[in-house]
Amino acid sequence: MKAKVKEALARPSYNVFDFYHRKGFFQWVAKSNAFETVTLVVIGINALWLAHDTNSNQSESLLSARIDFQVAEIFFCTYYAIELFVRFMAFRRKCDSLRDGWFVFDSLLVLMMLGETLLLSVLLLLLGPDGPASTAVGNASILRLFRLLRLSRMARMLRSMPELMILIKGMAAAATSVFFVMCLQLILLYVFAIAFTQLASGTMMGDYYFPDVLHSMYTLLLYGTFLDNLSQFCDE
């Protein structure tokens, strides 16, 4: 176990800068600490803005939202698109961008943002508020839920916090041991569920808490292991 943890911690980290140009404007910007810092700040502001947008913006589409929400969405979408373009142009071989997990992940998020912010708005503008397909597009406002995926960009902040990366690598190395501990707990829970079901059979407590093995496992897990507040929440 210790060897796996040490191996995970000692493994050389991937550095995307190795695939960038040696010279040029785009590689200089992409490698600069100021560019990375500004990007992290924008990601943090976007995460906070999503909370404000969720609480205050009740519009189904960007076109019907207040002007401040429209400006904010266009700003975030524009910045992320520019940031992605700068990073793409910094690669010596453009196909190497597909080998960078962060770049592929950010590309998918930017495409989703462009689809939600621009494409959906253009369709609504062309179809009109009373068009035959406007209802279908308006119902697509459920796509706003995909804004939550933007919060996953905050994972990039982990790269600026080496201590957190060490914790994550240690947790990943210990995941196998934790899995087998959970298997052991499940086996014990199953055995005691059978025992309680048989012992409490025919009693009022047995009929309510231990009518069968599955209900017995549920009772032992929530009432015997977790807090009472959780069991009350699950029962309701």
UniProtKB/TrEMBL annotation:
Q: Name one GO cellular component term.
A: voltage-gated sodium channel complex
Where is each Ion transport domain found?
A: 33-222
For this UniProt entry, which residues form the secretion signal?
none
Q: Where are the transmembrane segments?
A: 33-51, 71-90, 102-127, 170-196
The source's superkingdom equals: Eukaryota
Which Pfam families is this protein grouped with?
Answer: Ion_trans
Q: What InterPro entries does the record point to?
A: Ion_trans_dom, VGCC_Ca_Na, Volt_channel_dom_sf
The record describes its membrane topology as: Multi-pass membrane protein
Q: Does the keyword Transmembrane helix apply?
A: yes
Query: What are the protein's GO molecular function terms?
Result: low voltage-gated calcium channel activity; voltage-gated sodium channel activity
One example of a Gene Ontology biological process annotation: calcium ion import
Q: Which UniProt keywords apply?
A: Membrane, Transmembrane, Transmembrane helix
Coiled coil location: none
**Localization of this protein:** Membrane
Transmembrane helix as UniProt keyword: yes
Task: Tell me the protein's name.
Answer: Ion transport domain-containing protein
Species name for this entry?
Symbiodinium necroappetens
